[in-house]
Write a structure and sequence with these properties.
With 539 residues, the protein is mainly α. It contains 23 helices and no strands. Helices cover 73% and strands 0% of the residues.
Amino acid sequence: MNDALATAAQTNFTGWDWGIVVVYLLVSLGIGLYVKRYATTMTSYIAAGRGVGVWLGVATMSGTEMGLITVMYNAEKGFKGGFAAFHIGVLAGLVTLGVGLSGFIVGPLRDLGVLTIPEYYERRFGRKTRVLGGIVLALGGILNMGLFLKVGSMFIVGVTGLSHAGWALPLVMTALLTLVLVYTVLGGMISVVVTDYVQFVVLSCGMLLATGMAIKQLGWDSIFSEVQSQMGMGGFDPLASPAFGPEYVAWQAVLGLVGCAVWPTAIARALAMESSTAVKRQFTWSSIAFAIRLIVPCFWGICAFVFVTRMAPELGPWFGVGDQSLPPGEEAVSPLFAMPIFMGRLLPVGVLGLVSAAMIAAFMSTHDSYLLCWSSVIVQDVIAPLRRESLSIGSRVRLTRILIVIIGCYIWAWGLFYEGGDDIWDYMAITGAIYFTGAFALLIGGLYWQRASSSGAFCALLAGCSAVLGLGPIRGPVARWMLAAAGKPVTNEAAETLLSSARVGLFSVAFTLAVFVIVSLLLPDSPPKQTASPALNEE
């Protein structure tokens, strides 16, 4: 990036703000060191001893699901789609409320006392389904979080005014990853729950403060009128928006359901609760947080858009906004930088440090949960079932810690080298679908349909991998090949219309459910498997 962008991207971040951030990080590290003594068994390490109450459960779930990656991808959606992007948060909140009131999926799972979703697969469908489910879950989940570290670090780089420095991003990625690895490896789920509570408090205060100051700076009328002027009705109606449309809205409804009732990090919170009744209350109250975590960052993205178009037009060309053009030979930068630069220019010294600490809190609360989730699934559901001899408690905890470090190294490398044209949210949705399309079929079928069979479950897990077609580097060439085979003009716009990520995701869900039902009917189990099997001793 050139000197012109470096000057335009300067923020109010000072040494005082760095001090606030450093103090907060040291406190988080201290918590991880302190709670290490309590993580002595797999139940305590990955499920916090199953002693989490309702309000702590709400706080830790909210802290995890309100990650910095969530803030960044929703701000990107708001920057590009305006108020129409609010439908993503509204649908997520409504679906989570429905799950909380009914206990759909999460209640029965907690009653069974399993530690992971693939453990349920074994009880209902057999060991081979558990192993395959664990492999698919781990691969899809690890791929899903591949850009978390990079995108979270982009916030830090943008808000501190270092977005023009090529060395800043890898340095911040390394520092943040090291911090998260230390306290997650040491304390496990106990560390996660305790730090998530602290992060929830800091994050809530930071979000309220930043939102209030953004409204005061820009003004309600200006925000709405600018979106209307620049985007028209498409900035308010997702069905009329070129960025969304009916298929995309339907896809978001599916994602809202799986995000709370099927996604492993949310399920991990349900399995750590003290009872299924507490789980229902947790999800009912968490529905508010599930909506807010998506709507507020989206609003920040809208504010960043208004800021760029009205108050900082010199930034417009770099984000593809406004009538000005880029200097010759320069390339546009990612819209992901728009919101952190806006925050860095908007907030005064001290307040900026507090909000940055809140965002780093969001970053850590997501990474610790995801790292712990995927590593424990590999140990509990792939390595342990495949061994002839039982793994000791110490070996399980030790392997989980080793895998946390390995996965951390992977996301560092993937974030630096992956190049894809998808919005971050669309990337996450489609990589998550590699796992959750199969899991969705197996959980619903296993818990609520007696004729669900092991063969149907195994084939459904394989069918769910069809979602990989939605990844940009794969979807583009496939779509262009399909257009050429049909004798139609091959253009990027035509390819995106033919195989949008939403269309691929909806197809994958429908295809997987169909495979599950058809194979279960053609190849039934004999005798039928029972859902309420005796609990496995996996302490």
